[in-house]
Specification:
This is Glutamate receptor. It comes from Nicotiana tabacum (Common tobacco). It is a single chain. It contains 32 helices and 34 strands. It is α/β, with parallel strands linked by helices and 936 residues long. It has an eight-stranded mixed β-sheet with strand order 7-6-8-9-10-15-16-17, with helices on both faces. Helix 7 links the parallel strand 6 and strand 7. Helix 2 runs parallel beside helix 13, helix 13 crosses helix 15 and helix 19 packs parallel to helix 28. The longest helix has 30 residues. The chain starts with a helix and ends with a helix.
Length: 936
């Protein structure tokens, strides 16, 4: 039995699966070999080497981490060279290493990741931040610090927070720089921002190269600079920018976390270098405060002293320290799952005739996939805070600090986290609350910008050495009061629109060189939509003039704030309407007259019914009662009725009716007064609705958007539309009319029509303005000049200058001063429907109450008619109508007599009972009935 167990243990120790995992737990080796690739000639390489060595020492001194196994880290210098990085990686792969920490550079990581994929060796980098390294192409690359994708998202959110729209990217043209800027472009696009110019620099760029690049940058309009480079190159860029006068008012410099690394590690910078960075913004990876972090920071000076280096500690050192711990915990779990350190030859390398390269010495790590899985499953708390990975292989909840370089130091102005954006409180305090990315919740402390100013830079200026803007101006043939070329010139224009533009552009705080170019031949009005399209094609840089802001045009360009309102209106001939013998009927429509007359009769009838049994004024022969109803009804119009109402219900109905009559009378009087005293104009066309329903031709201005609107929005057939060019053409077409080859009406913008009607009083605007738009100046999409010009136009409107320009060019309006008025709508029934409803409801309720009351009286006075089954229905109805027609006093007196008779009968019954005599009750009742009949 002892021999059996011995053989079993030997078999389990030697056997392993294809994944490098034994069926049972294997024995842990005494030493685990791990490689580390750094660039010792850089500040980051020096400090991270110290952090890696400190982590190895702490792990090996704690037997509970690896269960007694020691971690051996072999460090090699890549010397910041892609070629040497490949050589060092191959040297590592020739040894039995489980993983590689590094490389430090994204460029080297791209190359080494391919080797790691082939040999299945996990590659853990805390400094290669290129976002594309997280792609599926590199499954064995593990980034142990936040990706540049999040850093670029933070920068994009800062730009959007300050409402800038275009930035200039200055970067090193390698994998690190290009892919980082590509990520920035993606993040800006999500916020409708963009990179207007990419200033690329070669990796080995000199100071002269930086000068050439910045000179080109200075010629651009944007003043928002994003610098994404290496620490060794970044300071040269800022130094040259200071030399060129670009660290000054109006500029914004945003540096990625290379600048915060210099500020943290290089110690106090010389005054001249610090002055170059004044006002710049940079990002630093945020690591929350904790006891672990405090202990490590307190040890840092001792660690760097032992290593013989000087300088502070950056976040790279913290992430390098946690990376080693992450790998150690993954290795420990690897062994706990039965992982075995074993290697096998790569068949493809064996088949290759490598010659002196000795490629066949490199082996595949059989447990690489299992170790990789355990790396992503680690969930720990390190010196950088909670440490773990998401499903997309990025660190959990990345965050950055926003740093403002000021004077001789720098200050923290806020935070950014992927959870809730910009804030002035640490991100860890927000994780317990729901994410809130509303604009009001995005906050940063005040920033001191370049030039020692706290006022937010505009972010865009027109450079003094920039080219002239090519601004198109419609060369109109008509309505030149708005815009027209000065006779005898080619580039001089005048008019209302031109003066608004020149006045607004003079308010800008920077010079804008421009040149006006005529668009059109001057004989026909040009089409504004084509002019706008040429801006998108790059033929013109802008367009000014009488350009209407429409939906289709806003999809192509950006417009300024409208400087004049001008919607579409209908203009048609009108004629004066004189009063005639039947003018008194005009205030009301036919339906209004009819309903009013009906209600007079209805109310009179209701009052008669309510008063008939009580009031002698409403009794008598039928002919008299009919005359009374008619007289009472219509006399209420003048409050001249002589009949008094005595019933409560009648008085209520009459009170409501007199109020209705008061309103109708007042409205009629006011309308009739207007008809007889104000000169009125009439036209068969009342507005766009009546024009659409006809088949008459319609005129429109040549080149105007009105044509497309009438066809596409109102469905008018193209054959009905007649293009017109000059105001004289308008007048002739309207005078001729449809019967003589003219038009029934013209549809055009109000601004043109008011000028046209100023000297042509035989025409008028009919109906309401049926579109709401205005005129604005057109610029390319996302042009900052459009925003600044809009601000200038608002200033002109607020200080009254815009109205002064309007009065100067468009004040000659003559017809509006005449006491003329287009015939308005007559008083409609719907205007009084509420009053009629209340009156009708009062009449109905009064009749209903009256009917209930008289029915109760009838049942009380004629109970026999209810119980008599032999009576016919017609007889009962006749009896009820006779009762309703009878005066109420007669009914009451008869009721009293009946009560007396009933009392006498009861007395006789009592006497007969006392005397013992029996009298036939039927005889007594018959006598009572006879007596009642005689009284009737």
């Amino acid at each position: 039995m002892r021999l059996f167990w011995t053989l079993t243990l030997i078999f389990l120790y030697n056997g392993h699966s294809s994944e490098g995992v034994n069926s049972t737990l294997s024995a842990r080796p005494k030493i685990v070999n791990v490689g580390c690739m750094l660039s010792f000639n850089t500040v980051v390489g020096k400090i991270t080497k110290v952090a890696v060595e400190a982590a190895v020492e702490d792990i090996n001194s704690n037997p509970s981490v690896l269960g007694g196994t020691k971690l051996n880290v072999a460090t090699l210098d890549s010397n910041s060279s892609g070629f040497l990085g490949i050589v060092e990686a191959i040297r590592f792969m020739e040894t039995d290493i489980m993983a590689i920490i590094g490389p430090q550079s994204s460029v080297i990581a791209h190359v080494v990741s391919n080797i790691a994929n082939e040999l299945q060796v996990p590659l853990l980098s805390f400094a290669a931040t290129d976002p594309t390294l997280s792609s599926l192409q590199y499954p064995f690359f593990v980034r142990t610090s936040p990706s540049d994708m999040f850093q670029m998202a933070a920068i994009a959110e800062i730009i959007d927070h300050y409402e800038w729209r275009e930035v200039i990217a200055i970067y090193i043209d390698d994998d690190f720089g290009r892919n980082g800027i590509a990520a920035l472009a993606d993040q800006l696009a999500k916020r409708r921002c963009s990179i207007s110019y990419k200033a690329a620099m070669k990796p080995e760029a000199t100071v002269d190269d930086a000068r050439d690049v910045l000179v080109q940058v200075a010629l651009r309009e944007s003043r928002i600079m994003v610098v994404h480079t290496y620490p060794s190159k970044g300071l040269d860029i800022f130094s040259m920018a200071r030399y060129l006068g670009m660290i000054d008012n109006g500029y914004v410099w945003i540096a990625t976390h290379w600048l915060s690394t210099i500020l943290d590690t290089a110690g106090p910078l010389p005054p001249d270098k610090k002055e170059n960075l004044d006002g710049a913004i940079t990002l630093r990876i945020h690591t929350p405060d904790s006891e672990l972090k405090k202990k490590f920071v307190s040890r840092w000076s001792n660690l760097t002293g032992k290593a013989g280096i000087t300088g502070g500690m950056s976040t790279y050192a913290l992430y390098a320290y946690d990376t080693v711990w992450l790998l150690a915990r993954a290795i420990n779990e690897f062994f706990n799952q039965g992982g075995n350190i074993s290697f096998s030859k790569d068949p493809r390398l064996i088949e290759q005739n490598s010659g002196s390269l000795n490629l066949d010495s490199m082996s595949i790590f059989d447990g690489g996939k299992l170790l990789l899985d355990n790396i992503y499953k680690v969930n720990m708390t390190g010196v950088t805070g909670p440490y773990g990975f998401t499903s997309d292989r990025n660190l959990f909840r990345p965050a950055f600090e926003v740093i403002n370089v000021v004077g001789t130091g720098f200050r923290k102005v806020g935070y950014w986290c992927n959870y809730s954006g910009l804030s002035i409180v640490p991100p860890e305090t927000l994780y317990s609350k729901p994410p809130n990315r509303s604009s009001s919740n995005q906050q940063l402390h005040s920033i001191i910008w370049p030039g020692q100013t706290t006022e937010k830079p505009r972010g865009w200026v027109f450079p003094n050495n920039g080219r002239q803007l090519k601004i198109a101006v419609p060369n109109r043939a008509s309505f030149r009061e708005f815009v027209g070329r000065v006779p005898g010139t080619t580039d001089s224009f005048r008019g209302y629109c031109i003066e608004v533009f020149t006045t607004a552009i003079n308010l800008l705080p920077y010079a804008v060189p421009y040149k006006l170019l005529a668009f059109g031949d001057g004989h026909n009005n040009p089409e504004d939509t084509e002019l706008v399209r040429l801006i998108t094609a790059g033929v013109y840089d802008a367009a000014i003039g009488d350009i209407a802001i429409t939906t289709n045009r806003t999809k192509m360009v950006d417009f300024t704030q409208p400087y004049i309102e001008s919607g579409l209106v209908v203009v048609a001939p009108v004629k004066q309407q004189n009063s005639n013998a039947w003018a008194f009927l005009r205030p009301f429509t036919r339906r209004m007259w009819f309903i009013t007359g009906v209600f007079f009769l209805v109310v009179g009838t209701v009052i008669w019914i309510l008063e008939h049994r009580l009031n002698d004024d409403f009794r008598g022969p039928p002919s008299k009662q009919v005359v009374t109803v008619l007289w009472f009804s219509f006399s209420t119009l003048f409050n001249a009725h002589r009949e008094n109402t005595v019933s409560t219900l009648g008085r209520i109905v009459l009170l409501i009716w007199l109020f209705v009559v008061l309103i109708i009378n007042s409205s009629y009087t006011a309308s009739l007064t207007s008809i007889l005293t104000v000169q009125r104009l009439s036209s068969p066309i009342t507005g766009i609705e009546s024009l659409v329903n006809t088949k008459d031709p319609i005129g429109y201005q040549l080149g105007s958007f009105a044509r497309n609107y009438l066809i596409e929005e109102l469905g008018i057939h193209e054959s009905r539309l007649v293009p017109l060019n000059m105001p004289e053409d308008y007048a002739k077409a309207l005078k001729d009319g449809p019967s003589h080859g003219g038009v029934a009406a013209i549809v055009d913008e109000r601004a043109y029509m008011e000028l046209f009607l100023s000297t042509r009083c035989q025409f008028s605007i009919l109906g309401q303005e049926f579109t709401k738009n205005g005129w604005g100046f057109a610029f390319p999409r996302d042009s900052p000049l459009a925003v600044d010009m809009s601000t200038a136009i608002l200033k002109l409107s607020e200080n009254g200058e815009l109205q002064r320009i309007h009065d100067k060019w468009l004040s000659g309006i003559a017809c509006t001063s005449q006491n003329t008025k287009l015939e308005v709508d007559r008083l409609q029934l719907k205007s009084f429907s509420g009053l009629f409803f209340l009156c009708g409801l009062a009449c109905f309720l009064a009749l209903l109450i009256y009917f209930v009351m008289i029915t109760c009286q009838y049942c009380h006075y004629y109970p026999e008619s209810e119980s008599s089954g032999g009576s016919s229905r017609s007889g009962r109805l006749q009896t009820f109508l006779s009762f309703a027609d009878e005066k109420e006093e007669s009914v009451r007196s008869r009721s009293k007599r009946r009560q007396l008779d009933a009392t006498s009968v009861r007395s006789v019954d009592q006497d007969a009972s006392v005397n013992g005599s029996r009298i036939d009750r039927s005889e007594i009742y018959s006598n009572r009935v006879v007596s009642f009949g005689e009284s009737v």
